[in-house]
Specification:
Layout: H1 2-18, E1 35-40, E2 52-55, E3 62-67, H2 73-94, E4 108-109, E5 115-119, H3 125-135, H4 147-151, E6 167-175, E7 183-191, E8 202-209, H5 220-231, E9 239-245, E10 249-257, H6 261-269, H7 279-292, E11 299-306, H8 317-327, E12 333-338, H9 346-355, E13 359-362, H10 366-375, H11 377-381, E14 383-394, E15 399-405, E16 425-428, E17 432-441, H12 465-469, E18 475-482, E19 489-496, H13 506-521, H14 532-541, H15 550-565
Parallel strand pairs: 8-9, 8-11, 11-12, 12-13
Antiparallel strand pairs: 1-3, 2-3, 4-15, 5-14, 6-7, 7-17, 9-10, 14-16, 14-18, 15-17, 18-19
Helix pairs in contact: 5-6, 5-10, 7-8, 8-9, 13-14, 14-15
Length: 566
């Protein structure tokens, strides 16, 4: 019996110590104490189910469980006021965040503008940033929503490349779910998968922002934990150096073999935040170290972890762009991992990622870090095709007008498609890229197409209607890419014929639901009769296998966003 009582006392003390509360008790509740009860396990009351402290603490099959104290009305009011105060403070901080402003793509008449050209975008930062807003109880800013990044957050079951090309094109067409009289074309790209063990050796430089703006519970700790996930999967032939910057930049860990995980993790643990932000100096030093340890034929990459708040040295968008344009010639790629809330400079992150032959992800929690740095390591960290561009030629005999959904910040001139000096996006091992075009078929009356007066000095178009009417194609998809170590591009292309059916895949349905949601949450002028309910219902029809649950998570986010919008 003495032993039995001792166990109870020890467990009670341990539980009180580990489950301390920050609640401010009212005078009426000051004399309350936390209560424990001992009961038969099989007879434990239902309300105790989640409060079991220990089972089988005696030979009589007893259980020790915690009974939460009664919370007074005054305490509930006080806690509610505290939560509102925190929410208001976070809302004020959001005013310091920066996003690029852009106008939505318009419908283009196929007779006058038969070509649509853009760079691929494998970034997914907009999705996890949107999730951060919604989970904190607010809808994101309209400019924070880049629809193509919402769509490309998810992987799709596209055909694998089979020949010498590292990328394969696929396409399908069906009814447009937010405008039934129009057609919706989905273009899918799939990069070749490479097993992790077969990936070439990596030369990483972790470039970590330790300035004052990175202080806070959701920044330095999450950065360290994220990078440790990556370190856990490094091999002996991989190498890591660590560079930090605040008021100045410095190397805190010279290039170290990937199997020396303890040394790398200790260097991460010793980092702390404080000071101004010399981002330009840090980038220059990181490239210098990456070049010094360059692995020929390997994966040479800087991983920049920051909130994007550069304010010392080279810090303007133009200055950073010129710096990265010069440095990328070395063959070193750049990946951007964004952290933090309230001071997040998404605009700068986009400039760096689009210029530096890399990608941009926003890390809002450790699960996202695991997705980006572990589950999708090859796609995020190893490039198989660079400067990937798409050019779609529409058949004016079939297409009256078309509109590219998203990719506003990735548009190219039609001449840029054949210009190998023009930079474009990169695709990593196993990456998928998806793009949608909303198409107004010939013969459909639509108020989405503008009109102009007939030309006085020339014909409206010099296209010969006889020549293009002979082709059954709705459109032709052309793609250019370069091998990672080449400066010369190669072109591949496929045609797409529309049989006016709606026999589309689960991937089509789900990705179309994401596109609809993006337009609804942005209150797009092109959302048609799209709605939260329609996007949710369509996404549920396109779950597919959804092994990791990302698609179901998105439906839950849409349901929450619907509640916030009402």
């Amino acid at each position: 019996m003495k032993t039995y009582k001792t166990v109870i006392v020890i467990l009670s003390a341990f539980f009180l110590f580990s489950c301390g509360t920050n609640k401010q008790k009212t005078p009426e509740a000051a004399d309350q104490v936390d209560e424990f009860r001992i009961v038969d396990i099989e007879e434990a009351p239902m309300q105790a189910e989640n409060n079991i402290v220990s089972e089988d603490i005696s030979e009589d099959k007893k259980a020790l469980y915690f009974v939460p104290p009664t919370i007074s009305a005054d305490e509930e009011i006080l806690e509610s006021k505290m939560q509102i105060s925190i929410a208001d403070a976070e809302y004020d901080q959001l005013k310091n965040e920066e996003y690029s402003q852009f106008a939505e793509n318009k419908f283009q008449p196929a007779k006058i503008e038969p070509l649509s050209t853009f760079s691929v975008d494998v970034d997914a930062a907009s999705y996890s940033n949107m999730r951060r807003f919604i989970n904190r109880g607010s809808l994101p800013e309209k400019d924070a929503i880049r629809i193509e990044e919402l769509i490309n957050y998810f992987s799709y079951n596209y055909p694998e490349p089979t020949g010498s090309d590292p990328v394969k094109i696929s396409a399908e067409v069906g009814n447009c779910p937010w405008n039934n009289q129009n057609r919706l074309v989905k273009i899918g790209l799939k990069a070749r998968n490479i097993a992790g063990d077969n990936l070439p050796a990596s030369n990483f430089v972790f470039l970590i922002d330790v300035s004052g703006s990175m202080e806070g519970p959701t920044r330095p700790g999450l950065v360290k934990s994220s990078l440790k996930l990556l370190v856990n999967n490094l091999r002996e032939k991989d190498r890591v150096a660590i560079v930090v910057y605040a008021g100045a930049a410095g190397e805190v860990l010279s290039s170290t073999p990937g199997n020396n995980k303890q040394k790398i993790k200790e260097a991460l643990d010793n980092l702390s935040a404080g000071g101004s932000t010399a981002g330009g100096d840090g980038i220059q030093l990181a490239y210098k170290i990456a070049r010094k340890n360059f692995i020929k034929g390997g994966n040479n990459r800087i991983i920049l972890c920051t909130d994007g708040d550069f304010n010392v040295g080279v810090s303007s968008d133009d200055g950073l762009q010129k710096l990265i344009e010069q440095e990328r010639k070395s063959g070193v790629f750049l990946s951007i991992l964004g952290y933090g809330m309230g001071n997040y400079k998404d605009k700068k992150m986009q400039v760096l990622a689009q210029t530096g032959n890399g990608n941009h992800a926003y890390i809002d929690n450790l699960q996202e870090a695991n997705k980006v740095l572990v589950n999708e390591f090859g796609a995020t960290m190893y490039t198989v095709a660079k400067d990937v561009k798409l050019q779609i030629e529409f058949n004016p005999a079939k297409v009256q007008a078309y509109r590219l959904v998203g990719y506003e910040t990735r548009l190219l001139n039609k001449e840029d498609f054949n210009d190998d000096t023009k930079d474009a996006g990169e695709m990593g091992a196993g990456h998928t890229v998806t793009a949608f075009y909303e198409v107004i078929p010939v013969g459909i009356k639509s108020n989405l197409i503008g009109s102009v007066d007939p030309l006085k000095y020339q014909k409206d178009t010099n296209i010969d209607p006889v020549s293009y009417s002979l082709h059954p194609d709705l459109l032709t998809v052309k793609l250019r890419y370069k091998q990672p170590n080449s400066d010369t591009s190669k072109k591949i292309e496929i045609p797409l014929i529309d049989n006016n059916l709606d026999n589309v895949s689960d991937d089509f349905r789900f990705a179309a639901a994401v596109a609809m949601f993006g337009q609804v949450v942005k209150d797009s002028q092109y959302k048609g009769n799209g709605s939260y309910d329609k996007a949710i219902a369509l996404a549920q029809k396109g779950y597919g296998s959804d092994i990791q649950g990302y698609r179901r998570e998105f439906v839950r986010l849409m349901e929450t966003a619907k509640g916030l919008a009402n």
